[in-house]
Structures are given as structure tokens and as C-alpha cells.
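Case study 2.
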Amino acid sequence: MDTQGISDALRGKTYFIRTFGCQMNLHDSERVSGLLDSLGCSLVGDPADADIVIFMTCCVREAADQRLYGQCNSCKSLPTAPSGKRVIAVGGCIAQRDGEGLLTNADNVDVIFGTHAIAHVGELIAQAFEDSERHILTAEDESLAALTMPWHREYSYHAWVPIMTGCNNFCSYCIVPYVRGREKSRSIEEVVDEVTGLVTAGVREVTLLGQNVNSFGRDRYGAPRFAELLRKVGETGVERIRFTSSHPKDLLPETIDAMAEVPAVMPHLHLAVQSGSTRILKLMNRKYSREDYLSLVDAVRERIPDIALTTDIIVGFPGETEDDFAETLSLAEAVGYSQAFTFIYSRRQGTPAAEIPDDTPREVIQDRFDRLVKVIEDTAFAFNQHELHQVVPVLVEGTSKKDSSVLQGKSPKNQTVHAPLPEGARIDDLVGKIIDVRVDRARTWYLSGSVVGAAR
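Prediction:
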């Protein structure tokens, strides 16, 4: 079907997107949304009002599969679509992994598109409207075309900027390399040009995305050049730079130097440790030891003393003993994380870890998980005390979900900050602005205080 035929088939249609999983999935959703916008479709906030319902999926944990099947099946009870016909599409990692097999648990899906097929979404959906057949595209493609598609940003002041796709690490528990393929980096010039255009359009904060940003450029230039990229993005005039994900084995000294020396790079580093036990790290194929990780933390803090460190930790990896877990607890206490994403291990078929036998009772794993959460709550609370009675610059995101008279935003260290709306101020006038907040309460998961001075 040619471009005109696709536009004719989709013009005037409404669409709804629900996203599961990581920031890369969020960005993929924005690309899909931008493509549909360009073809004459309109975004709606409820699947009942949509001619096209799209689920962008994650397959890192088993719960994501079950949520997807539940969401797809719930579409069977929706009222008739505005146009008289509804197309259900599933994209992302589950689509890439399962392909047509997804229909076993979700038999009302019309379109399945893998992680490499985003650029073809319009064509696949248009064909489904035209012929009422199922259309499936999950072929692997080394192209970076999806990263240059039009996109529909959720926020005018923030942009996700993918700098690479894929992953070469093959951590033993992780399905991502199998569904997103090998690492493929964009050129430095292309990324810098994109950020320059975003700054011109009013974007104040960018988040550079990759499964392992620290190895950016290795495939293209023969060696990692993430430090150089950070410096060049810093020269665009963007006010805040964040990045994720950052693999410890590839965090080079020159990257730490760039983080310390580029003013726009925020003092926050997400450095996934996964376990504090060297024995478990080896089974995970993480390629660093407990001591390596702690040395890296010391090197980062030497250059950026007040940095906020966040992490990912898996509890209950096959074969984890109480001694292994005790090492995870002690590492978390030693590092003093400002936040951690903690997960109970989820077996993923097709990964090496899925073949490791494990008879640890579920209640033992749950107890370990609960103990870890308590440690993280304690370290997060302690870290946030550093901001008490300080003035913190906050990028305003909107209002608190609990109170529309309270604004909410993020500090440079990625802490959530609340403050009462100044008298006479409208939140619509403040979203995307930076305000100063004098912090008078520092809790585990947020800071709060009062606005001082004018927004900028």
C-alpha cells in the first residue's frame, strides 16, 4: 500500500496507546503516535473512543504478559468504534518475541509489529482496516529508521532522545538482547542535530536513551564515545541532560569527568547493580564484581560528591542464598541509594538463567524483598535530608495527583518536589518552567516546601 493509500485508509481515525515497560517503550510509543498523527489520526484518552487501540509491550517480567492479555481481552467488551470498526495492535518486545504466537492468548489482535517494525505501523494498520486480515511483521532489521520518524511528545519541555538501539551484554536473566537485537548507535552529529532542534522548539530537558548508553559509539566508531556525546549535547544549550541505562562495566573515567564538567548534566546516575554478591553477579553475567561496583561508586562520588545514585536490584535470582542476599543488603546500605527499583526475579524462557534450578521457597524470597525495600526506604530518607532547608531548582511537571493546588516537579537529582501553587498562579503557566523551592520537609520519596522568587 502506498503512502496515499495509507493516509486515505487512516485519515480521521482515532487512536489510543497504552505503554508498558521502560523509557525506550515510552519513546517508541511517541514515535508511533507521531506517525499516526502525520497520517491524519487523532489521539484519544479512552480505548472506548478509539478506532485503533495499540499496546506497546515489555517482556522483562512475566506480569507484563498477563497484563497485556487482560487488556486485549477487555477490548472485546468495548462499544462499537466511532468509525464502525476497531483495529487492535500489539507492538514492542512481547510482539517481537512471540509474533503470531501472541494470538494464542489474545485472539482479537489484528496487527502485531516487532521492535524493528515501528516505521511500518501505519501500513500494517491501514491494511487491517482494508482487508480485515491479520498483519504481522517481526522481522529483524538493523535500520535506525524508527529513530528518525515523526513523534508526538507527551511533554513540550522534555524529550526522550534515543542514541542507540539494542544490547550486546546478554545478562543471563534478560530477554532484551533477543527482542531488541544488537547495539546500533546513531552518529554523534545526528543526535546533536536532534537536540539542537529540540532546544529551538523550547525543550529544556532531554533524556538520552539506550539499553547501555556507556557503550554508545562502539559499533560505529570502534570505541565508546559517550563522554564526547555528553559534552557536545551540553553545547546545544539544553538546560538539563539525563541518561539511562548505564551499565557499570562500561562507565569510563572520561564519562565521569564529562558528567562532572558539563553543567547541564544532572547530578543523578542510575547505575544498575542487580546484586551485591560477586557470586550471583557472575551467574548473572554482569562482568563486574561487588568490589568493582563499589570502587566505581567511589570514583563517581570523588568527582560529584552530592550525586544521587539510583539502581535496579533483583531479589531471588536462582541459587541466591541468605549470604548472597546479605551482601546485597550491605551494599545498598554502603552506597546509600536515593531510590532503587527492586524486583523479584521473573523467569524468562529463552534466557540462560531460566535453566538454573532453584528450590528457594517463595515466602523466603518475599521476606528478602521486604527487607531490601526497608533498607532502600531508609537510605532514600537519609539522602533526602541533604536538601532540608536548601533552595532547590524544580522543573515543574504539573500538579500533585492528590491535590490540584500543589505543584509537582523534579529537582536536578530527580527527586519529586511539592510546593503550594503561589497565590494567583495557574499551573498551566508554570508547567515546563523552573522555579526555586525552599525545602522545609524531606520525606522518603519526596521533598516539599514553598516557592521563592519568580518562575523562569
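The first strand starts at residue 14 and ends at 19.
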